[in-house]
Amino acid sequence: MKSEVLLFVGEALGSYGFPEGHPFSVDRQGAFWAEACRQGLDRRATVASPRHASREELLRFHEARHIDWVETRSRIGTGYLDYGDTPAFPGVLEAAAAVAGSALEGLHRVMSGAARRTFQPIGGMHHARRGRAAGFCVFNDLGGVIETLRAQYGVRRIAYVDIDVHHGDGIFYSYEADPDLVFADVHEDGRFLYPGTGSAEETGRGEAEGTKLNIPMAPGDGDREFFAAWERVVEHLRSYRPEFFILQAGADSLAGDPLAHLALSPAAHAHATRTLVDLAEETAQGRLMVFGGGGYKLANLASAWTGVLAELVRA
Ligand SMILES: [Zn+2]
């Protein structure tokens, strides 16, 4: 039986990946999809086709000069989009626009009532800033969803939750002074890992003081530490009664990721998803969008993300 869950997979999203042995490779979506099909999860969600974001849609979060820059580098097809983490390749504009556009398509379907929850494995580009690419992230699809929720749907109070091993700095600093963006991020301590931010003292600025929760974890921490942190996340989120939930479920926080040093199991991602499904039902009419984020060991992302999807289709 189909559930009310939309799953965004397809060639346009699969093409978001960097060449020549880069950890963010083009085979990540395929690894997830093969495992999802093996478990029969593909039959329990509605598969939706990716679409490209228009320039107008990208401008909701990004500065025009950033879009122009990506367009130029995409045509040239070489060099870097940032300081050296995020290579350009021919067609990177289209690939990044597919990530952002699919997120907006998912949002519209949720807001119209056609779907209750979405999962987009290739998505959750939480390092991209309004004016620049960073950390494998070209366009910030999450920021696009937040801006569109406000501009088009009048939804103010949005919960952004991030369990990727890296701090979600692109979202955190874009909304640091925004009291209606309720933020919770569990990540490896920035003293040991890119991007170096997200200390527990960073709780929001001005009016937004207290609306942001950063929980850095020590290298080597596993499920026990995560589950304890997660209780604080749930308490934080519940106190603000958000109208909409977004989860960035990066699988690079699992044990054995080649870029990071936490030791979670897929049970952490399943547990986080399950509780957010429930919280969304309590205060947000069930509205929850989940994005795959990072994860650079294929077996890890396949097990973490199928665990996420299994929770999304369970309800
Ligand atoms: Zn990451």
Give a concise summary.
The chain is of the alpha/beta class. The protein has ten helices and eight strands. It has an eight-stranded parallel beta sheet with strand order 2-1-3-8-7-4-5-6, with helices on both faces.
Explain the overall architecture:
Helix 2 crosses helix 10 (298-314) and helix 5 (92-111) runs parallel beside helix 6 (141-153). The two termini are 12 Å apart. The chain has 315 residues and is an alpha/beta fold. The protein is globular and about 50 Å long. The chain has ten helices and eight strands.
What features would you highlight for this structure?
315 residues; alpha/beta; 8-stranded parallel β-sheet; 10 helices; 39% helix; globular; binds zinc ion
